[in-house]
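The aim of this short unit is practical: by the end, you should be able to scan a pair of folded records and say something sensible about each. We start with the first protein, listed as its amino acid sequence and then its structure tokens.
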Amino acid sequence: MDKSIMIYRTSQLTNTGNFLLAIIITLIGFFTPEIISKLPHIDQLSGNSKNIALVFILIGISYAFWSFLVVQCKTYQITLEELIYTHGVINQDIDPIELYRVKDAGVSRPILLRIFGLGNVTIYSSDKTLPQLELSAVKSPKEIAAIIRLRVEKMRTAKGVREFD
């Protein structure tokens, strides 16, 4: 792969809460027939308890799968001239930011992300459609910010552009 093009993805670690919720919903499904059978005066539901359980299980699994896809379809591509943010599962949106428009790049490393060697890179730009972009839960955030800064300076020099506040 060309080293001038770098592709980064958001970590699935950001889905921890969604996956836990999906597990809880799925477990409710597994225990629904037993719960319904112990409820007094619910004879009508006991015949449908397996159907109700199946609905919970399908919702839990579908929610986990959808959460996985949303994060998996989110990419950040850094070329020599632009940063391209691609996202969306069914309808894909591609948002480029010209590197000479980037004003600043900041790094934050919350404790949970830092434990796994991840962090967030926030890009501030003069782009009208995307003035702020967060590359969330990416590997080597300090290196990414440094690469962006170097490429921004190269593009500004090449284009003869200066940033004014």
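Turning to the second protein, read its sequence before its tokens, just as you did above.
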Amino acid sequence: MRPIRAALPLLLICVTPAFAAEMPARKAGLWEMKMTVEGRGIAMPAIQQCIDAATDKQMNTLGASMGPQQCSKKDVQVSGSTVTVDAVCSVGGMTATSHAFITGDFNSAYVVKVNSTRAGGPAAPGVPAEANMTIEAKWLGPCKADQRPGDMIMANGMKVNINDLAKMGAPGMSK
């Protein structure tokens, strides 16, 4: 499973920067995200996110600091409840091209389908040159009493808060 975890940033690198100003806000509360990568027999563990308006915006803008020098193309089209994102970004000698199709209402559930291809950069065993990924998200209800906005709860119960990461100066996190 380690190679596919390493591939996720590569798969998402083109899509995330374009989302910042274009993605509709999600309903505040607890969201569950399930990711699948086509051709992989291993199910990715679900992740839960406790969000409010500020942390939702912060999560959507991760990677938004990638500018024209890294991304030669960021095209976002919104039509009703559908968002289409096409992007081409280069980082570390690797170029990733992606097409994402997002459907849903962002109040109860949405689906993101991403096709991403990469070229160049160092060889990465187990990381495919082309990948199709689906993210299914659903609203579970209000955050639990022991959760605060920004919490990401992993399948093993580990909890990380993006606000704490930002305070520690984690890359891509604004303080």
